[in-house]
Write a sequence for this structure.
C-alpha cells in the first residue's frame, strides 16, 4: 500500500498511509476529512524542491466500484527527504455523503483510493564547469596555431549557458499516482462517533467452553459477510442457526410455553429472556420458511442488521453464562 511517483531524473517520491491515516472533525452539516501520508524520496538527487500535494479521494463499494468522495489539499508545501516525513491533506464531506459511505462499505472495512497529484516548480540545472577534456582540447588547439579563436568560442558558449540558466524561468511539473489502502471498520466507526454522525457498540463474541459453540460463532461471521455482500435473507437464515443453539442451551421454548399464559409483569427474569429469544427466532424464521403468513415478509438491510446484532448479544450472554448451564 504505497505509491511511487517517478520524478524523471532517476529519483522518485514514495507515499504511504500513516499509522493513523484518517481523522474526521465536526463541521456545519458535515465533517472535515484529514488524511495523513508519509512521504519520502528514494535518493534525493535534486534536493530542496518544494512540492504541493493534492488528491481526489475515492471510496469503493462491495463490488469494488469507485465513487468520488471529495478533493483533498495540503495546506503547506513539502520538501521531502530520504527520511520519511508527514504531509496532511484535508477536505470536506457532508452528512449525506457520510450516510452514503455507510451504505457503500456495508459494515465492512472502508477501502480508499487516492488519485494523487504532485506539483512542483523546478529550476534548470547549473551549467557544468569547463571539463579537463575541454582543457586538453584547448592545449591541442593552441599548438595548431588557432588557440585564441577556439578558447574564445568555448568561453562565449559557457557565458551564454550561464546567462540562460540565470534568467530562465522555472519549469512547472505535475506528476500523478494512485494510493489504495483500507481503513478498519471499527476505526471508521470511531471517527463517525467523533463527528456525531453515528454511534456504535463493539461486541466481541468469545467462544464459550472451548469449541462448544464454534458453529454458532461461525454462523454469525457468515451472516455478517452475507449481509455485507447484500444477501439479506440468506444472512438472516445463517444468523438464525446461531439462535437455535441459544434456544437449546437455555431451553427457552419450554420456558416460553410455561410462561405465555402469565401476565407479562409476573414473568420471571429467565422467562422474559426466553420470550426475547423465541421472538427473535420467530422473526428470523420468515426469511427461511415462506408460509401463508410469512410469504409477504420483506426484510430490509436495517432489519437484518438489527437481527444479527441481537443474535450477537444473545451469544455474548451465552458465553458468560455457559459455565452454569
Amino acid at each position: 500500500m504505497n505509491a511511487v511517483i517517478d520524478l524523471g531524473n532517476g529519483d522518485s517520491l514514495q507515499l504511504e498511509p500513516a499509522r493513523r491515516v484518517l481523522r474526521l472533525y465536526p463541521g456545519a452539516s458535515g465533517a472535515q476529512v484529514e488524511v495523513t501520508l508519509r512521504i519520502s524520496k528514494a535518493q534525493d538527487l535534486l534536493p530542496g524542491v518544494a512540492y504541493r500535494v493534492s488528491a481526489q479521494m475515492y471510496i469503493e463499494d462491495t463490488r469494488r466500484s469507485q465513487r468520488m468522495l471529495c478533493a483533498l489539499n495540503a495546506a503547506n508545501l513539502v520538501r521531502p527527504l530520504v527520511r520519511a516525513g508527514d504531509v496532511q491533506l484535508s477536505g470536506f464531506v457532508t452528512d449525506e455523503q457520510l450516510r452514503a459511505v455507510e451504505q457503500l462499505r456495508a459494515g465492512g472495512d472502508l477501502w480508499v483510493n487516492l488519485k494523487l497529484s504532485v506539483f512542483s516548480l523546478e529550476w534548470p540545472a547549473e551549467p557544468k564547469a569547463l571539463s579537463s577534456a575541454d582543457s586538453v582540447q584547448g592545449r591541442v588547439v593552441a599548438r595548431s596555431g588557432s588557440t585564441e579563436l577556439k578558447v574564445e568560442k568555448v568561453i562565449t558558449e559557457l557565458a551564454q549557458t550561464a546567462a540562460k540558466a540565470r534568467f530562465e524561468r522555472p519549469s512547472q511539473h505535475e506528476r500523478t499516482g494512485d494510493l489504495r489502502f483500507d481503513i478498519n471498520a471499527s476505526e471508521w466507526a470511531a471517527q463517525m462517533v467523533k463527528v456525531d454522525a453515528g454511534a456504535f457498540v463493539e461486541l466481541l463474541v468469545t467462544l464459550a467452553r472451548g469449541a462448544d459453540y464454534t458453529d454458532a460463532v461461525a454462523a454469525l461471521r457468515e451472516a455478517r459477510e452475507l449481509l455485507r455482500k447484500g444477501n439479506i435473507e440468506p444472512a438472516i437464515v445463517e444468523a438464525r442457526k446461531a439462535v437455535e443453539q441459544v434456544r437449546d442451551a437455555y431451553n427457552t421454548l419450554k420456558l416460553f410455553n410455561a410462561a405465555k399464559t402469565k401476565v407479562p409483569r409476573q414473568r420471571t427474569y429467565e422467562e422474559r429472556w426466553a420470550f426475547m429469544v423465541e421472538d427473535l427466532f420467530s422473526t428470523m424464521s420468515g426469511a427461511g420458511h415462506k408460509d401463508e403468513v410469512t410469504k409477504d415478509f420483506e426484510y430490509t438491510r436495517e432489519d437484518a442488521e438489527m437481527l444479527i446484532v441481537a443474535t450477537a448479544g444473545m451469544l455474548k450472554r451465552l458465553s458468560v453464562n455457559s459455565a452454569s448451564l
The CA atoms of residues 66 and 164 lie 47 Å apart.
